[in-house]
Amino acid sequence: MKINDPLLTREQLANVQAHADRVLREAGAHGVFPTPVDQILAAAKLTIVDDDVIDEAALRRFMNNLKAGASSLIKSALSKVLGLFEPSERLVVLDKGLHPSKIPFVKLHEAGHGCMPHQSSLYALMQDCDQTLDPYTTDLFENEANVFATEVLFQGTYYEEEAHAESFSVKVPIRLAKKFGASNYASFRRYVNTSPNPCCLVVLEKPVWQLDGTFRADIRRIVPTQSFHKLFDATNLGDRVDSLHMLADAVPSQGKRMSYYRTLQLTDRNGAIQNVTAEAFYTGHNVLILLKPKESLATGFY
User: Fold this and answer.
1) pTM of the entire predicted model
2) What is the pLDDT of residues 101-120, one digit of tens each?
3) Which residues contact 75 (CB under 8 A, 6 or more apart)?
4) Which is it for strands 208-209 and 91-94: parallel, antiparallel or unpaired?
5) Per-residue pLDDT tens digits for 157-176
6) Of the residues 6, 144, 197, 222, which has the fewest C-beta atoms closer than 10 A?
């Protein structure tokens, strides 16, 4: 199971959000849908080297002034990561095999390294000195870049204001993914992370179906709101869902893309059984399950 990014401090978050808002304003992208990612990168003076032009000749055209061996370094890096920010030439280089739905987020993630001065200047310094960042700083910078990409892609509060003006439903993040030009996975995470109510996203790997109609699917990630986490210990869900699991009824049947409201039962932190509604969407790669308590123990607003 993948670990969720640690939360930034208030100061770190405010700094990332300020740079994201600045980039959106400079690109004239506020209120433009889908979010014009390439327009934003152009305004930030970043050049995209994507999967159509990653070859030696193209790299030489874009990187005439790079130090010797940089092209081979980039090619080596691309075998291990989805994207790369090159500070001296302000290039964003993408992995050839990157799935199209991931491209906008990865572009903005790498742009984050270049648009936040405390990062870009340090990366440039490290390059000049042939040094690398310490693991803590690397993890922090990657986390900040993820937050930057999310803030830009979903245009600050635009997404949440629209999303949570409607009734809680699996259809909302699906519709908004198309509107903002995001992947369903990113949209579902934003939907839960900005929710004012207790809810949880459970992400499953692609289910493996057996001839007898049973299935199994590893849990890739669990994203609860803080209010949901106070009510339920999501680690009780384990690391795999199969046909006998408490979430089994929420998984769309084989050949189906969605499952609508199901009432499941989860044990809360007090040991009491609580009714939880579940809906799910199968992206073709992952099953995204939304869980919501029917009645909040804290406020009773459901």
Assistant:
1) 0.85
2) 999 999 999 899 899 999 88
3) 54
4) unpaired
5) 999 999 999 999 999 999 99
6) 6
